Amino acid sequence: MSDNRIVLEIPPTGTRTTREEPKPSPLDVAIGALFLILTFPVIALSLRELADVADSLEYGADMIDIVNSMIYSLTTVSILLVLGLYFLGVIKTRVTKVASGLTLIFLSLVNFLCRVGDFGRELQRNREWGWDGSLFEYLSWPSTHERIELALLGAIVGLLIMKK
Question: Is position 148 within any domain?
């Protein structure tokens, strides 16, 4: 009589192998540090811009301009922080990569939607001042399409961090 039982063996917890993440190279550390250092002047410029927008409230600016300024600045600072931490090797696990990537994607999409609202208001103002160009012509201006590209850059960076 033969014994046809299947036996599953569970390895003891002490023999578990861990996969070591490679340490960041000196170049990666330098790039990561540069991104983190760049956050300080960006924050300073962002606060100055926010103060200027707040001052313009008494001259007819809208509260939405303050909200948009904060969103634009938060997007830029978040991109620099995530890239800095990523290059320094702080963002290692799949969970932190996905969380960082999704945060950048979300902020970039909100940034993009705010930019579209700004474009609508700018087009309206330009038409009130007598400009009669098309939307396509407006989007071809460097000052316009560069803002769209910047808004989408954060989403691209977020996708790349999640993929790696």
Answer: yes
Report DSSP state, residue 24. P
82 and 104 in contact (C-beta within 8 Å)?
Answer: yes
C-alpha distance from residue 142 to each of 2, 72, 125 (Å): 80, 18, 18
Residue 10 resides in a domain = no
Predicted TM-score of the model (pTM): 0.79
d(CA 74, CA 59): 25
Residue 7: what residue type?
A: V
Question: Quick one: which of 154, 82, 80, 85 has its CA closest to 115?
Answer: 154
Domain carrying residue 31: 24-163
Q: How far apart are CA 1 and CA 40, in angstroms?
A: 77
What are the tens digits of pLDDT across the range 66-109? Answer: 999 999 999 999 999 999 999 999 999 999 999 999 999 999 99
